């Protein structure tokens, strides 16, 4: 009578054990976790595995990095927004490891997220870059602080995560309700380590003996990677700040408009950026030549370009007469000198610092001088040699104002802290100088100065950000700039443009030339080209073109030419990324044939130049530039 219950209990125990074990076996066989790691960054994915061993990704990504966790799964999905449409929940399609520090996750609707770290050290920084489809307005990603971290400072774009002595700063396009919101104009998030400040006493002791050679080896804050991360955050913040100002035109300046459009162009959104600027501003009277490469009106804007160069020429003469070093703060001084290397005034200016009886520059003057030197040196200009005797003294001045605190570098002039703007300008000059003379310590010092400034002043006013943009994003050639394209006989061929590259080449006898212009496919921009001698024929897209005063209004490339000032006003609408403008020059022996551009007598024949793109040794004022000097305009 006792055997039957025991047998029943034993049977049930065996049955339940088989079922439980089967459940565990089935669960672990059908689902598995993929663990990815890059230094402090840890990412987990989930996948299903069928009976045949085939894996299928689940919609689940969880990324953790020192104090913060980002999630995209069925419970908190990645959400894509488009104007006039409800939010769309995205699903994970695939992932890839770009390299040891970058992971990319591809989602439906041509959307992706890229997680990357600067390195694998304990002080590394994280960045997240979103890639949105063209019709999308925003993408939101869920996030939360880890349990051991506290958010001590929070705004729509900036949060500080702290735990004990550890502090991280998160700069994002926007945030709301526990979600990071990436926008079409701002698709980057930065999460960076904050170095704790050292005692003031240590600063004072180190300041007395500091040289750039004392920078800590392999300091993350002295690396280009950290600078790119911080500058990327700076540029993203600028876009966020500029969006409302640009679209409404309220308090919009040319610097803000230029920085906004250049940054959008670097993200392949040039035409969208130009169209975002209010029509009232684009057609308004407050603009000058500065934004003409984006908004046209080249002929009318040329007068302000001429006035700027005339004013700079006068300022150079005044600086020479007064032995003033303040002239080196002029933003386009180096480009002016490079266009006119044979000018007596330019040569005298290059000699000025070394010829002073007492060369004792301020921090700003020392920074500006080495910035000009670096630009000339990088262009292989003979003018750079005149500065060789003073560059070391300029570096000494900068180091005398610098104080090293751990892996941060700050500037003080006397007892006064140097402003964020001046620190960035000095940092930019040191980076360029170090690269031009292969001095890695100067370059590292420039990066450390900039990265320290970014960490201590993460957000500035829009006006300050726009003014500093060309120093921080100097590799972005979509920002309006002077470009030396080549030379033609005794004239330097140069342009005011937003094109990343313009090249001018003549054939051996100087009878024809090709002007190569690089820009985005399908995009339109405008160029003022100086030093173009009179021509008889012009071809664009390989097709003969005729001048037309309304050239800027057509949905095509076009031009107007000013023969008296040798100025070509060009609209370039790119049917290919590199547009070629072919000119056939007017030759003396070809007279009395009717010119294609303007019925005025041809000038004396220009000697045939050699085929090279170096600047000519010419005086800037040899050819008048102002359209006002003409008695009539071209038809």
Description:
Mean pLDDT is 84; it is low at 200-207, 590-622 and 628-635. The chain has 15 helices and 30 strands. Helix content is 32%, strand content 29%. It has 635 residues and is an alpha+beta fold. The termini are far apart.
Q: Regions with pLDDT < 50 over 5+ consecutive residues? A: 200-207, 590-622, 628-635
- Strand percent estimate: 25-35%
The number of distinct helices, counting runs of at least 4 residues, comes to: 15
Name the assembly state.
single chain
Our measurement of the CA-to-CA distance between the termini, rounded to an integer number of angstroms, reads 121 Å
What's the total number of strands? 30
Average pLDDT score: 84
Overall shape: it is globular
Q: What would you report as the Rg, rounded to the nearest angstrom?
A: 31 Å
Q: Estimate the helix proportion, in percent.
A: 25-40%
Structural class by helix and strand composition: alpha+beta
Most strands sheet? 9 strands, antiparallel
Short description:
By secondary structure, the protein is an alpha+beta fold. About 30% of the residues lie in helices and about 30% in strands. Strands 1, 2, 3, 4, 5, 6, 11, 15 and 16 form a nine-stranded antiparallel β-sheet that branches. It has an eight-stranded antiparallel β-sheet with strand order 7-8-9-10-17-14-13-12, with helices on one face.
